[in-house]
Each structure stands twice: as structure tokens, then as C-alpha cells.
Amino acid sequence: MVRGLLRGLLLSAGADKREEVLCQLEKRAREAQHELAGYTDAGDDVLDFLAREGEPATRRAVAANIATPALTNRHLAEDGDDDVRAELAQKIGRLMPSLSKGEADHIRALTIETLERLAADQVPRVRAVLAEEIKRLDNVPKHIIQALARDVESIVAVPIIEYSPLLSDADLMEIIAEGKVHGVLEAVARRRPLSAQVSDAVVSSLDIPAVSALLANPNAAVRERTLDAIIDQAERISVWQNALAVRTDLSVRAIRRLATFVSIELIEQLAARHGLDDETQAHLNRQMRLRLDEAKDSHPTAPSNAAQDDVDAAAEAGTLNDAYVEAAAESGKREVVVLALAKLARLSVATVRRMLLTRSAKPITSLVWRAGLSMRVAFKIQRFIMKLPADELLPARNGTRYPLTDDEMRWHLSYFGVPT
């Protein structure tokens, strides 16, 4: 149509220029339409015309325009371009909180109808965009939330299941029982808050990632008997152990049970809790010593002659100091570091080895402090000798100071029988 009108206006132009001029004019017309489609004051009739006759880019702009009338939005929900419908889904989701009950009935009805159509869109990406926008809303018709929560695509269902306030415990129990989509159980386990009843259902599934997510959720209510059941399984499922150790709702019995099989680091974490009675503290100390003895029995303790000679020579020369131990650590000379720390801290080589074998930053930091060396050396040992991951490193405070108090470091040393 536009092309025909322009031809009529250009009859007087030279034949060789007409096509070029027409193309330029049509291009500018499309650009003008696209720009107009974004104006909130363009007018309902103009926006409706552009939604029906415009190019895909223009229709996307109309779909994103908050001033587009409800009837036009409903038309765009049937648009053949996926990007247009995705743009519309994002806008409708963002408009829903402002769709008050006082809105005109026909506008409200059209908007809900548009929402329903988008929730049933054949393209998962469109449904996923909508789900992400409305996942926290409480004014969306519940049947739409129910449909999205049971969607066959996880990118659609998971956000709704994890966040929607419109899903009841009964809904969640049904979704768990159906188990249609991968990741559903984890989404349920991450909900905040989560009732004890639903937590029980998650644990009963024995889904390892889901139970891990549940344990990491501080707003999940978990019954004591349910935690006991998890602990019974945790001895063989190590990924649950870290999450269990930081739960604040562990009973004394659960703490003692957990300490019988977790790592030295986790026993240390359990022992650092406030309010533990003397009997429980003593139990944790015994478990710590048992684990240390096991580590000692499984590793050789005889130092190499070359390393011993090197450390002895440094001691005689008066160079057994920060620089010496730091250089040894950076070079990965584990045996030299062990012997140097033993000599400087006046401890047996076996004790130093046991402390390194814990792979815990706090005991080794305490050992370096006892040896009279700097926190910089302690950090280098953690990094180059113990090879701790970044999230387990214990850095200096204010750049150079020890991050633990003297009493804390004496307490860590006492685990290894070091006199304080």
C-alpha cells in the first residue's frame, strides 16, 4: 500500500532513480513507525494500527509500550513472532501489580485473558519470561499459577514453585508427588518459609541436591526426627555434612552423632557453637583426637635428611625466620616447613604433621603464631602447602594482624596437646 502511494507521487522522477527513492522512503517510514510505537502518547488507534500492520520490530515496541490498550495487548498475545509475545509477557507481568480491583471490568478481563494466553504459549521462552515476572505476585489468578507450577519445562515451573505466595502446602505436596520436572524438589526446598510438613516430604524423596538445598535454607522448619533421619544418611552422603554442621537447630544428641563421622574441620565448627554443655564439649574433643590419631597413623613421620640438614643449617646461621619459612612455603617444600615450624614452636614433628593434616586454617595459623612468625607466613602455608580453596583461606586482619585472638589460638592448639 505504502509502495503504491509513493509510486504515484514519484511519476515525474526519472525511472532510474525511482526505485532507489522508494526504498529510502519506505525505510524512513518504517523507522518513523518504530519510533512512534514507543510513544506513550501516540494514541490507542495509532498503537493498534501499528500492532496489526507494523514490522516485527515495530510490533515488539508496541508490545513493550505500557500505554498500549488492553485490547491491542490481547491481539499481540496471538502475534506470530515469538519475540513480540516475549516482550508482551514481560510487560504484562510488570503491569499486574498495578491492576487494581478498581480498574474497569473490561480492561481487567482483557488483561487476565492476555495473561492466560501467554501462560499457555507454545514457546517455553515466552512462558518462562512470564513466570519470572509474576513469580512473587499475589494478585494473579491462582489457576494461572497452578498451570505454570506444573509446566513441563523447568525454566517455567521452577521460579513459580520457589517463590509464588499463592502455592499452599497442599499444592507443594502434590507437585512433589507428581515429580514431573527436574529441579522441582530443589525449588520447593529453597522456599522461604517452608513448613515442617513439606520439609518431611522433601527428605522422604531422598533426592540428594534437594535435601542439600533444604539444609541450607535457614527458613525451612525441619523436625528433630527428620534431622535425625538425615544424619543417619549423612555418614555416606558427605555433601550433606557441611550443611548440617551449620544448622542452628541441631539438638545436642544430633551434634554428638554428627561428630562421630564428620571431618576435623566440621568437628571444630561444631565445637565453636555457643551454649554447649561440658559433656558435649568433652565428646567433641574426644572425637577430634580420634580423628587426629587416625590421620597420624595413616601418614609417615620420618623427616628426610636433606630437609633436616637445611633447617638445622638455617638455625645455626640465625636465618630460621619469617623469610626462610615463607620462601620454603612458596616453593612447596612441605618437609622443610614442617621441620622449621616444629623447631620454632618447640613441638614434635609428629604434632606439626597432624596439624597440617587437618586441612583447617585455624590450627595452622595458631601454630605459626606460637612459632613467632607473621600472619603472612601463615597465609602462605595455607595457600602453597595446604593448598586450601579460596573460601577456606584465613586471611590477615587489617592486612598484617592475626585474625584470631590469643585465647582462640591457644584453644586450637590445645586440641593437639600443646601446652598453653
Task: Describe, in short, the structure shown.
This protein is 65% helix and 0% strand. The chain has 420 residues and is mostly helical.
Provide a descriptive summary of the structure in words.
- With 420 residues, the protein is an all-alpha fold.
- Among the domains are: 38-167; 305-414, no CATH class.
- Helix content is 65%, strand content 0%.
- The protein contains 26 helices and no strands.
- Helix 6 (82-95) packs parallel to helix 8 (124-134), helix 20 crosses helix 22 and helix 24 packs across helix 25.
- The protein is elongated, with a radius of gyration of 34 Å.
Essential attributes:
420 residues; 65% helix; mainly alpha
Set out the fold topology.
Blueprint lengths: L1 H8 L5 H23 L6 H10 L2 H9 L5 H7 L5 H14 L9 H15 L4 H11 L7 H8 L4 H10 L5 H10 L5 H6 L6 H9 L3 H8 L8 H11 L4 H7 L6 H8 L4 H8 L6 H20 L7 H13 L4 H9 L3 H12 L3 H9 L3 H10 L4 H11 L20 H9 L6
Helix pairs in contact: 1-2, 2-4, 3-4, 3-5, 4-6, 5-7, 6-7, 6-8, 8-10, 11-13, 14-16, 17-19, 18-19, 19-23, 20-22, 21-25, 22-23, 24-25, 24-26
The chain-level mean pLDDT equals 87
Order of helices and strands: HHHHHHHHHHHHHHHHHHHHHHHHHH
Which structural class should the secondary elements be placed in?
mainly alpha
Instruction: Give the amount of beta strand, in percent.
Output: under 5%
Instruction: Give the CA-based shape.
Output: elongated
Q: Count of DSSP E strands?
A: 0
Number of helices: 26
Major β-sheet, in short?
none
The level of helicity is: 55-70%
> Termini separation (Å)?
94 Å
Unreliable residue stretches: none
The gyration radius over C-alpha positions equals 34 Å
